[in-house]
Amino acid sequence: MALRLPNHLYELLPIAVLIGTIFVMARLAQSSEYTILRTSGLGPGGRCARC
Hints:
The longest helix has 26 residues, at 5-30. By secondary structure, this protein is mainly alpha-helical. Helix content is 65%, strand content 0%. The chain has helices spanning 5-30, 33-39.
């Protein structure tokens, strides 16, 4: 069982990251923080759009 853990980790990690990203983006949109980030020039990648 312990030797199969890395295989399960490779299967579950992308799904967990996707669900976490959706959750964070929903929370940012709910509190209008995402709109503030977009108007200040930061895109979804976090880098400055003018840089």
